[in-house]
Amino acid sequence: MVLKVKNIQCSHGDELAVRGVSFSVERGQTVCLVGPSGCGKTTILKTIAGFHDPLVGDVIINNELVSGRGGYVPTQERKVGMVFQDHALFPHLTVMDNVRAGLWRKSKIEQKKIASDYLEIMGIEALVNRYPHQLSGGQQQRVALARALAPRPLILLMDEPFSSLDLDLRLHMSQEISELLKIHDITCVMVTHDQQDAFVMGEKIGVIAKGQLLQWDTPYDVYHKPATRTVATFIGDGGFLNGKVNENGKIETDFVELHTHTDSPLRVGDDVDVLVRPEDVVLDDKSLLSAKIVKRTYKGAEIIYTLSLNSTTELLASLSSHSYFSVGEEIRIGFQLDHVVAFKK
Amino acid sequence: MFSSRLSLNRFGFWVTGGFALAMILSVPVVSIMFVAAQPSGDVWDHLIDTALLKYIHTTVLLAGAVGLLSLLLGTTTAWLVTMCKFPGLKYFDWLLVLPLAIPSYVTAYAYTDLLEYSGPLQTFLREIFSWESPADYWFPEIRSLGGAILVMAFVLYPYVYLLARTAFLEQSANVLEVSRVLGRGPWGSFFKTSLPTARPAIAIGTSLVLMETLNDYGTVDFFSVPTMTYGLIDVWLGMNNVAGGAQIAASLLVFVLLLIILEKLGRRRQRVYQKESSRFAVLPTYDLKGFSAFLAFCSCALPILIGFVFPVIILARLATIYFETSWNKGFQELVLNSFFLSFLAAVITLMIAIFLGYCRRINKSRMLGAAIKIASLGYAMPGAVLAIGILIPFAAFDNYLDGIFRNWIGISTGLIFSGTLFALIFAYVVRFLTIALGQIESSLEKVSPSMDMVSKTLGYSNRGTLWYHHMPLLKGGVFVALIIVFVDCMKELPATLILRPFNFDTLAIHVYQYASDEMLGEAALGCLFIVLVGLMPVLLLSSMLKKSRSVGR
Asked: How far is CA A228 from CA A16, A213, A236, in A?
């Protein structure tokens, strides 16, 4: 384990911003903390970096207690690297000098060599003599990353690293950086409010809301097996069907009957909400179930329809762009629920 | 409220250091307040019986009239320059600041030379009309309360001008257009829309003018206008009545506190009225033609002529006449003395400002903030009051130290603090700290906090972060602040007069002493020097104004 966060609680002003969060990160792993803004995820990151003291709980980096139990190792001795949303490049230094900034303990020759290596890794060796204001957003990001990685930190911390980039560049950068971190075996904790970034980058995702860690899982499980309703609504879209668990252990909804998981904690007679993701809804001419189209959002390759099944149930359906319907039209639909996710009411 | 349990060992040096320094710098302000709160029976009664009421009366008259006149001058010129188009506009914009370069006592000396009985103007009139004696004609006496009012107003109005100009420039163009669409003409728009929204800024400017008026000693002394500052120095240095001086200082403090409140209120409301977003809006302007253009031209030209051009011409003429007698070794030494002292004080002030500014950046504790606020109240204190606030505790400390050394070692230490340059530099630091701190803090604010954090993760301590990553960015702000503080130290008169070590003269003291001896000719070269030095920050300010103007329009 490179990083262990044990039951930390942090205050932000007069409020408790982090309420007992624990997780651990293995060497070479990239984890993403996802949550809406103000959920406390950045506070967790700052606590790991040492900018924030936890009220309770420990932070352990490489088997050394750095925060907690009366101990405190200052940031500059923690060997963490950090990349910020605004990149925070030193405006008075060239790209080369920015990347060299963290190598001041080494000789000049070594500094140059290491910095050049990292500039090459990031593919920006041509920019060495430029100043930050002469760089594009993507280039600044690369410099910031090279600067953070050059001193070979134990952990790389990234706070919303992609949110200042435009959409195209963002996807490109997140894929590229994800590969780079893997190749160089870098441990990374990233904070983002954007689940797409988290899906691309994270081997593990921590979903945070109101200062609590709601789920710690792989991206696949966070999406398909959300632990709570909050996770289900924050990660991905979807709607809910009303249901009740019958004597056979199946969930009876107003429209279909569904299997439950064997490890499901639900009991007979429980009233439940069944999660239906947009891609779980399929067109089915033979189906007896019809739905009225309330709203249509065109997205190019796909179209998101808002469907009304009855007066209380609305679902989202993601259909291929070839299935083009008008608002008000009635269509026949079925469900393709490989993972039945039901929350007790 | 949750407290960070580790905050002390994290910021120990900076927080305790910053707090301690702020406390030390608060000593003069606190000791004056302490004196003010002391009941001291008969001294007080005696003062009230004799002079204090006269001092207060004169001060109120002077401050009221100077405030009103500079408010009128500053607001009118600022409005004309931002909202109207007329010939010369481009130059007036920054020329209107120039009077700030001249300390009011220098202007007072210049006009006295021009307007007194033996001056060129009256001599000229006498020759033309062949008058023989003062009894033959009437001529206004410049060395009077009225003269002091005029001199100070024409020197100090740029404070109002600067703040009002910014306020007008930052007013939302939309608001003004709406006001005109609603059927208000230029005058209606001015009184109902422009003026009320610029009011907080104008209030701040006026309160700064009044603080300077209370601070002035050179003018009122030369014109024999018995204000409280005049009385204070007269009672303290002239009559050697320490307690009496302290009591006048204490009552002067009441006025100062009122002004501080006025200024702070203004600043609070200013934040509401002046929104960043409207800064780049293009203001609707009135194209003035014919007579109204001429009127606008004169309204802007007059303050510049009276406040800057005439005094400089008079001084230059005098200085050339008396150049042989004035320009000697003693004078050159004096200039070097002044430069050295002011530069030293400016560097120390800047170092303290950087230290305190950075302390506040890395630790947001309210205690530290409050301590720094109290320490930086010195800018509002008249120099004479501040000097007394320094002299009382320092002298007490010196005596205490002297007593100890005499008892134990048998050696007298004399006046280590109160009688040396230390006290004088301390006074300069306290008085001008706010200017420097303001510059440093606004420079620091422009740097994203994530830069500090990155610097930490790259292995730099607080000191390393300040030195390697903030200082290079602060350079510009430090330079500007250094010049402003340097020049202010050069011009400073009342505190220097009280605190300077025996036989140590600055340029300002030299000028003051010659003027007191009615030797204006010999004083002129020194005055001209002060004006030249004073031009530095003003020209700097002008170039900034020109830039803001090109963006603002």
From this structure: 22, 11, 13
Q: Sort out which chain A residues have CB atoms less than 8 A from B451's CB and list them.
A: 88, 90
Q: Tens of pLDDT along B1-48?
A: 333 434 444 557 888 889 999 999 999 888 888 877 766 556 556 666
As a whole number of angstroms, the distance between CA B94 and CA A246 comes to 85
Shortest CA gap A25–chain B (Å) = 19
Comparing CB atoms, the residue among A14, A53, A101 nearest residue B458 is A101
> CA separation (Å) from A257 to A252, A310, A340, B158?
5, 17, 11, 82
Instruction: Measure B278 CA to nearest chain A CA, in Å.
Output: 25
> Percent helix, strand, coil in chain B (nearest 5)?
80, 0, 20
**Is the model's pLDDT at B276 over the cut of 60?**
no
Q: What is the pTM of this model?
A: 0.83
Q: Do A78 and B457 touch (CB under 8 A)?
A: yes
CB-CB neighbors (< 8 A) of A151 in chain B: 458-459
ipTM computed for the complex? 0.83
Please judge whether B450 and A85 are an interchain contact, meaning their C-beta atoms are less than 8 angstroms apart: yes
CA nearest to B453 within chain A: A51
| Closest CA of chain A from B409, distance in Å | 47
Q: Alpha carbon of A57 to those of A23, A71, A157, B97, B372: distances in Å? A: 12, 11, 20, 59, 34
pLDDT in tens, chain A (345 residues): 899 999 999 988 788 899 999 999 999 999 999 998 888 999 999 999 998 889 999 999 999 999 988 788 889 999 999 999 889 999 999 999 999 999 999 999 999 999 999 999 998 999 999 999 999 988 999 999 999 999 999 999 999 998 888 888 888 889 999 999 999 999 999 999 988 889 999 999 999 999 999 999 999 999 988 988 889 988 888 888 888 888 887 888 888 888 776 566 778 888 888 899 999 999 988 888 889 999 999 888 889 999 998 888 889 999 988 888 999 999 999 888 888 888 887
Whether chain B has a CB inside 8 Å of the CB on A326: the answer is no
Picking from A50, A76, A90, the nearest residue to B469 by CB comes out as A90
Residues of A in contact with B1 (CB under 8 A): 14
Residue-range domain boundaries for chain B: 38-107+146-313
Tell me if A74 sits within 8 A of B435, measured CB to CB: no
Question: Which tens digits make up the pLDDT trace of B366-413?
Answer: 888 888 888 888 888 899 999 988 988 888 888 888 888 888 887 777
**Tokens 């019986």, residue?**
B49
- Give the Cα separation of A84 and A141 in Å (integer): 9
Tell which of A9, A47, A92 to mutate to test the B interface (max B CBs under 10 Å): A92
Q: Which CATH class is domain B38-107+146-313?
A: mainly alpha
CB-facing half-sphere around the CA of A115: CA atoms within 13 A:
25
> Cβ contact (<8 Å) for B469 and A153?
no
CA quadruple B532, B536, B538, B539: dihedral positive or negative? Answer: positive
Nearby residues of A284 by Cβ (< 8 Å), 6 or more positions away: A332, A333, A334
Q: Are B216 and B147 in contact (CB under 8 A)?
A: no
What is the C-alpha separation between A280 and B327, in angstroms, rounded? 96
Task: Determine whether the interchain pair A76/B453 forms a contact, defined as Cβ–Cβ distance below 8 Å.
Answer: no
